[in-house]
Amino acid sequence: MNTDGRHGGVNVIEAHGLRKDFTVRVRKGLLRRERRDVAAVDGVDLAVQRGELLGYLGPNGAGKSTTLKMLTGVLHPSGGRVSVCGLTPVPQRILLARRIGVVFGQRSQLWWDLPLRDSYELLRHIYRVPAAEHAARLRRCRDLLELDPFLDTPVRQLSLGQRMRGELTAALLHGPEVLFLDEPTIGLDVVSKQAVRGFLAELGQTGDTTIVLTTHDLADIERLCRRIVVIDHGRVVHDGGIDALHARYGSQRRVTVDFDTAPAALPDLPGVHLEATTGPRLTFTLDNSASVGTLISTLTTLGSLRDLSVTEPEIEEVIARLYRSEGRAPSPRFP
Amino acid sequence: MAEPAAASTAAIYRRLVAAQVRSQLSYRVSFVLDLVSNVVFLGADLLTVLVVFHRVPVLAGFSLADTLLVFGLASLGFSLAELIVGSIDHMQRHVRTGLLDAVLIRPLGVLWQLLVLDVGLRRVGRVCSGLVLLAIAVRLAEVAVTPANLLLLVITPVVGAVFFGAVFVATATVAFWWVDSGELSAALTHGGRDFTSYPMTVFGGWFRRLFAFGLGFGFIAYYPALILLDRPDPLGAPAWLGWCGPLLAAAAATLAGLIWRTGVRHYRSTGS
């Protein structure tokens, strides 16, 4: 095995023109049905290096989960090539299964009616992990994810947050090279989210485990991922850093000012737009080129300011803008 | 990577079954109730046979004891299959809940994992009552104790289990293509059991031929029972048909395996 991802420089995940068509049957009249092919994933190119922590984003139905299922060997691609750890996922499913870990946020790998500890013991046998290795990995997860208080509790009695920490551990005990996480923080409370994020950040830092994460929670992305891939309608619409995304989609800072009384005139500066007026409160959005300082000094000449705040661009807004623009126009493809 | 030893794979499945036992015993009362109700179920079927013979001493050439032997062989085979493979009926649910996906990302075979993770141990009750019933029938029908008969008494329920198991798997797989396939599945599994539970002389022409030979259900209990009872077939079939069960079971299992593989392949290419 010399083509696997263990050797530096080689991509752990590679996909070229990956696509997945689903056949949808549409009822036409009483008996007639029309078959239509719908592309859930429509030519995705992806290269992920060992140790990367990649955020995979997209609106509902964009093809995130379908991509993940093709990468993990659950679904057979309709077209294109895919390799994970140097293996072709579907025909080499069992070999691949030993080298990847998968957490589906909405379904469980654990034994519902048994203590959490028992699930880990069963998984140790399923994955044929040597006892010492298994114990060492479990020890680390127990410490970092604070599993000890509920290790002997049946899984069905765990809170969602506890269960998710349990799921993460379950996916890691065989020492996977790649960890796929499908919405790992969905439905978690703030504390559990932070615990999961902190753990993933630490795992990502060691550089041994490649992590691919799909999420709707953009805080996950900001906290964890240097690189994000955004897909919409089955196509990659962005692949790069968060900064690049802000720059490209014209992220706007926002300045909100409260006057004592509504000003008679408005500032007219390049790159500054009035977004809203509610009584004496004005909200401006600023393009990247515009200066907050100039705006504020102009505003002080228009009336007496009571309060003022500057908001940095939010990734949420950028992504929303991205989805909207992609939804309407044909997608600009990134190289 | 070396091919994992079959023995250690078996050990993994043993652990998984043990885990299932522990899981289901964690609901002790419910487990006991299920167990009891499963025994009662078989009792109800048995009652039908007894009611019929209360009215007529001989049914289509077979006495009560003869019929009980056929009934016992069929229900032991069926309940064994139901115990081990019956949960595959939940195929649609496995797809919907994502258990199928969860199983696909583990380094073990898909079908066996699904069976083991969903095995309904309360059905042990039916197997036990099937065993008791068969033992009683063997006494009542005065089956001669010969090595050949003993062998046939052991292999026939196993053949029945494999054959019914194959039917369970094959019909459940149809659910990959045809969502509402439950009726077909029930017709073939429970219909097949009802057919095999009686001497097939009870049934009429084309229906008998379809189930006995077309679908193979005649070889599960009726022909072996004729050998055990040491009597010729009133319908004129040669006695050696009673020994053909293993061949049939092997063929059925192979066919079911192929259908299953095709079904999983279909799922992996359509996602539904």
Automatic annotation (TrEMBL), chain A:
Sequence ranges assigned to domain ABC transporter in this UniProt record: 26-258
GO molecular function terms listed in the Swiss-Prot or TrEMBL record: ATP binding; ATP hydrolysis activity
Example GO BP: response to antibiotic
Protein name as annotated: ABC transporter ATP-binding protein
Membrane-traversing stretches: none
Top-rank lineage group of the source organism: Bacteria
Main localization, broad class: membrane
GO CC annotation: plasma membrane
Membrane-topology annotation of the record: Peripheral membrane protein
Subcellular location: Cell membrane
PROSITE patterns found in the cross-reference section: ABC_TRANSPORTER_2
InterPro entries: AAA+_ATPase, ABC_transporter-like_ATP-bd, ABC_transporter_ATP-binding, P-loop_NTPase
Alphabetized UniProt keyword annotations: Antibiotic resistance, ATP-binding, Nucleotide-binding, Transport
Organism from which the protein derives: Catellatospora coxensis
TrEMBL record, chain B:
Pfam families the record matches: ABC2_membrane_6 (PF06182)
TM stretches of this protein: 31-53, 59-85, 150-179, 206-228, 240-260
Keyword terms: Membrane, Transmembrane, Transmembrane helix
InterPro entries: ABC-2_transporter-like (IPR010390)
Name of the featured protein: ABC transporter permease
